[in-house]
């Protein structure tokens, strides 16, 4: 996860962790969108492991800012109501 994607919250904008952004994008992926959180985490873990097969904990490697990245992923999965950012884009366009 690239920490450069993180932005400090501004007044009127919700705080979102780097994991939130990752999960939102993952949940919009056609291979994951119909899965429950734990199932999706298992698929993601297989992918992370394939990227670094010699690493003991790929979650910690790819998400060092999280204390327990897999648990955060599963918890965040249930919180994502709109996996695609259409609502935010529509709000932004309406504000302009």
Specify the structural class. mainly alpha
SSE series? HHHHH
Low-confidence stretches: none
Oligomer: single chain
Q: Count the DSSP helices.
A: 5
Gap between N and C termini: 30 Å
Helix share, percent = 40-55%
Query: Could you report the average pLDDT, rounded to the nearest whole number?
Result: 84
- Tell me the β content: under 5%
Number of strands: 0
* Radius of gyration based on Cα positions: 14 Å
Number of domains: 1
Shape assignment: globular
| Major β-sheet annotation | none
Blueprint (SSEs and pairs):
Elements: H1 18-27, H2 37-51, H3 58-62, H4 69-79, H5 86-95
Helix pairs in contact: 1-4, 2-4
Describe this structure in words.
By secondary structure, the protein is mainly alpha-helical. Helices cover 53% and strands 0% of the residues. The chain has one domain. α1 crosses α4 and α2 packs across α4. The termini are far apart. The model has no long low-confidence stretch (mean pLDDT 84).
What attributes does this structure have?
96 residues; 5 helices; mainly alpha
